[in-house]
Design brief:
407 residues; alpha/beta; 12-stranded mixed β-sheet; 12 strands; signal; Beta-1,4-glucuronyltransferase 1
Length: 407
């Protein structure tokens, strides 16, 4: 009875995922013709990468192999404390999620239990099973005691009667905290993006929730306007940036720009990190974007910017591709500036950031306060030194130099 119910729910979910039959006439054919990509082998694998052991595709999504040109993958990173965001994210995204989880030492066991809880117990488990690929990674010097093959590990039964293992976790009790391990955020970002089965990706943070229907609208938008005419080449590479906002803890995440505008007027929503690092997320034309009336239900470009001059410290999050510059894996979350090196490379390469009009990201409810920055980022000097002594020179050797581009 329960298996039949699971099957019926899964079939319903398949109609909600923005696949081929949700695209406008001719869009799929255009995507297939113009997107230069190849299908990847979708199976679990183990690799030693730098100083980490990576279990890629440890949990496979139920969607199986998909055409690389016909969808968009949300690529992200986390440790198990943040897995409460998986279902809220998927409820809005409804497309593939490639998630890299840092799980050193004894953090590996609660990570597995958390994944099993999402797959077996959570009311949104069908979304997780269908859409989410999990990749696990840990330092080779901080191995778990036991790493079972995925087929064996995933046959274990989760404890559905108790709280989720990722709830109410005390950070000081975690293995990585007790062993003073920095969070290798950019390793996770690159693992998740490399594992994407699709050419187009949204490389973002797991607490940032997208506008519902974004993938469908974006692919239709590409089919209408962006892919162009055969033989025409753009003079500059291009990605599509998303505005980012925060809402108060007791406020629901808005699903449309008109809802967002009302929350901004009432003070229940604010631009992302405006009290922590305003220049990092403002970007060009923010006020005009906020105050613009919503006319078209279709997705369009509101304005175009570059990461230079007045926006030289901008850290845009964008719909791009697996071929965009990678994140520097020597930079950790604790040291801050972890996305700045990628942004510098994109500046030198003269990337255009086409900011979308009716799509955005909203952080999990709860607005960060200025004190948050002071209590967390204790290693910025080390990062600043590493960038100035070594990384900046390497970036100039690899990508060159352009006036107005800064790290």
């Amino acid at each position: 009875m329960f298996r039949l119910l699971d099957l019926l729910i899964s079939l319903v979910l398949l109609t909600l995922v923005p696949r081929i039959n949700c695209l406008q006439n001719g869009t799929l054919a255009k995507l297939k013709r113009f997107v230069n990509c190849e299908a990847k082998n979708y199976k679990p694998s183990e690799v030693i990468y730098r100083d980490y052991w990576v279990l890629q595709n440890y949990v496979l999504a139920g969607h199986g192999s998909i055409p690389c040109y016909a969808n968009v993958t949300y690529t992200s990173h986390a440790d198990y404390r943040y897995l409460d965001n998986v279902v809220p994210l998927l409820e809005r995204w409804r497309s593939p999620l490639s998630l890299a989880i840092y799980a050193p030492g004894t953090d590996f066991e609660p990570t597995i239990r958390s994944i099993l809880y999402l797959l077996q117990c959570h009311p949104g488990k069908h979304l997780v099973r269908e859409l989410c690929s999990f990749h696990l990674y840990f330092d080779v010097e901080h191995l778990p005691q036991v790493v079972l093959p995925p087929d064996t590990s995933l046959r274990e039964q989760a404890n559905c009667s108790g709280p989720a293992p990722y709830e109410n976790v005390v950070k000081s009790d975690m293995y990585r905290t007790r062993n003073t391990l920095n969070y290798p955020v950019n390793i996770g970002r690159n693992i998740a993006r490399r594992a994407s089965l699709t050419h187009y990706v949204l490389a973002s943070d797991i607490e940032l929730y997208p506008t519902p229907g974004l993938v469908r609208d974006f692919l239709n938008f590409l089919g209408r306007q962006v892919l162009g005419v055969p033989g025409q080449q753009r003079t500059s590479p291009m990605v599509h940036a998303l505005r980012i906002f925060e809402v108060k803890a007791n406020v629901s995440v808005p699903s449309s720009k008109s809802e967002l505008q009302e929350l901004l007027k009432s003070g229940e929503a604010v631009p992302f990190h405006m009290e922590i690092c305003e220049v990092c997320h403002r970007g060009p034309g923010l006020e005009e974007w906020i105050n613009a009336s919503v006319v078209s239900k279709e997705l369009n470009v509101f304005n175009v910017g570059r990461r230079s001059e007045n926006n030289s410290n901008w850290e845009p999050i964008f719909l791009g591709t697996v071929d965009d510059p990678p994140y520097d894996e020597r930079l950790t979350w604790e040291g801050q500036r972890d996305k700045m090196t990628q942004a510098y490379a994109m500046c030198v390469l003269d990337y255009e950031f086409h900011i979308l009009d009716n799509a955005f990201l909203v952080h999990k409810p709860g607005i960060k306060q200025p004190g948050y920055r002071k209590t967390i980022f204790s290693q910025t000097r080390r990062t600043d030194g590493l960038i100035s002594r070594k990384i900046s020179k390497e970036l100039r050797m690899m990508y060159g130099f352009r006036d107005g581009c800064v790290i």
